[in-house]
Amino acid sequence: MRWMGVHRPAFAARFTLVAVALIAPETGAGQARHFSLESAAGLRLHNVSAEPAVLQGKNGLRVTMSEERVRRFQEMTSEQQLNAQARVGQYAVVEGVEFGNGVIELEIAGAPAPGAGGGSRGFAGIAFRLQNGGYDAFYLRATNGRADDQERRNHAVQYVSHPDWPWFRLRKETPSKYETYVDLVPDAWTKIKIEVRGEHARLYVHGQEQPTLIVNDLKTGDQAKGGVALWIDQGTVAYFRDLTVAPLAMAARDGTRRSDLATSEAPKVDHHQHLLSPALAKAWSSSETVTADRLIAQLDAAGIRRALVLSLAYAHGSPELRGKDEYAQVKRENDWTSEQVARYPGRLRAFCSVNPLREYALAEIDCCAKDPNLSHGLKLHFANSKVDLRNADHVAQLRQVFRAANAHRMPIVVHVWTGDQVVGRPFGRAEAQTFLNEILPAAPDIPMQIAHLGGSGPRLDPGTKEAMIQLAEAVAAADSRTRNLYFDVTTNVTAQSSAEDAAFVTARIRQIGLQRILYGSDMAIKGNATAKDSWKAYRAKLALTEAEFATIENNVAPYMR
Fold first, then answer.
1. In what order do the strands lie in the sheet with 123-131?
2. CA atoms of 415 and 520, how far apart (whole Å)
3. At residue 105, does pLDDT exceed 80?
4. Contact 309, 337 (CB under 8 A)
5. What is the 8-class DSSP label of residue 368?
6. What span, in angstroms and rounded, lies between the C-alpha atoms of 250 and 261?
7. What integer is the mean pLDDT of 332-350?
8. Mean pLDDT of the region 150-154
9. What is d(CA 126, CA 160) in angstroms, rounded to the nearest whole number?
């Protein structure tokens, strides 16, 4: 809380003040609860005063240091003030509520109180996991946001864990690790969100997609629970409004539906992503491109560490885009993808791609096998490549491609869906059987990922359902040909999916077996859901237990390990 370097007497040392609002029991299946904070009702105050107030036209709660606390504080020596800063218990508890993991959101404003010392910054924040006088907290130093001194600006937001880890200890032992800059204005409503998962917490300010401050070692540990508090420090007038607490019962391992929870752990890997080069964006008349930087930002927002990037080079071989320099375009797209993922070697891994029916397909696979960024695997898209599984020549060519990938030990992600009545290439049980009988055996030694559960995302026409059932039945029957198969669930469910379609997908997931199911979200352009929103839709739509969702979250394909 603070100024740089020097601790001054009287108001200069800091003193922690807390008004606790424990919004609702976590026993209610992690249900999110809202507290308007337009009065002190529901708050048992300790060492603070609170009263309704209006700031910038919005109703909220004004919280200041109580007169008794001010008097007692002023009677302390500067050394006593500093020692008391993190150790005197000032909080008010609403009985029967615990918060361990989840999301806290509210609006905060703060400014120095009239007559406060020169070191006052308008300290206002949120304490959580408050129990027996200890807690974690994030808070804002309102006047630091636009200070003329850069060092002060760098201390605009702060994490602390009282009583053992006050700001001055953290700053001394690990400078800059637990505080950073964000733009702040005194007496202005500031939206904040705190995400807490085990030992990890992220502070988001101003509704930004990226966190302002990340803490990966919460001092209370990964199992702590306790209260949620409106937090101020001495010399501050603070305002609070519109508080929401959404707990997450991370320890539940019974039949609790994950979709009943307000938030969840994120999948470790997104197994189905794409990048879109400027060249292909132009060919598709798209105003958007997707670079590695953009994808990483999306993964960060979702809390997902890694992604499998599937090259879109195959699209240059589709009849709609073919030109005189078709193969050169394919190579350039694969090369561009290779260059992009090379910027994030610890987070992105790429598969090259090609239209398997083109004359250069085997040559390009050989080239990809020599590129360290593309040799991890091969992506094939039957529908885009106009594959017809009723065409014997197509099936024969596919066998050659699968044998080549097998020889190079390049795993395959395959979009087996070839179309429907609308596009003129029916896909159903017979086509799925052809894949199982005539194509899959050509690559017996490599893992293979069936995209979209064998379908085409949310499109679940009768033929597609038949094919998906056929593939799932083969796995459930322990067909030896399917021993290396994995299935991604990319876009099989969206926020718009019907209950009937969601139930069908749930049944296929269980029929295949949770250990083979991989999370994927696809490219987030033209209104497609982001990785974060896609996973949110799955939690909301699928009737899976918490343990089943946890299995999918933790599944990592062999080629991503």
1. 16-20, 227-233, 123-131, 134-141, 157-162, 179-180
2. 13
3. yes
4. yes
5. H
6. 9
7. 95
8. 96
9. 11
Residue 520 corresponds to which tokens in the numbers above?
Answer: 């994927």
What digits encode the pLDDT tens for the residues 376-418? 999 999 999 999 999 999 999 999 999 999 999 999 999 999 9
SS3 179: strand
* Separation between Cα atoms, residue 469 and residue 131, nearest integer Å: 52
pLDDT confidence band for 14 (50 / 70 / 90): very low
Beta strand residue intervals within 36-176, DSSP E: 48-55, 58-65, 102-112, 123-131, 134-141, 157-162
Q: Which two tokens stand for residue 130?
A: 């408050």
C-alpha–C-alpha distance, residues 298 and 294, integer Å? 6
Burial 108-123 (b: 16+ CB within 10 A, else e): bbbbbbeebeebbbbb
Task: Mean pLDDT check: name the lowest of 25-34, 92-101, 441-450.
Answer: 25-34
Specify whether the CB–CB gap between 197 and 211 falls below 8 A. Answer: no
- The DSSP line for 146-176 is T-SSHHHHTTSEEEEEETTB-HHHHHHHSTT
Q: Is the pLDDT of residue 207 over 80?
A: yes
Q: For the CA atoms of the chain, what is the radius of gyration?
A: 28
Residue written as token pair 């491609």: 401
CA distance linking residue 420 with residue 259, whole number of Å: 32
Enter the tokens of residue 463: 């033929």
Give the position of tokens 């293979």.
448
- Write the Ramachandran bin of 392: left for phi over 0, alpha for psi from -120 to 50, otherwise beta: alpha
For residue 58, the tally of other CB atoms under 10 A from its CB is 14
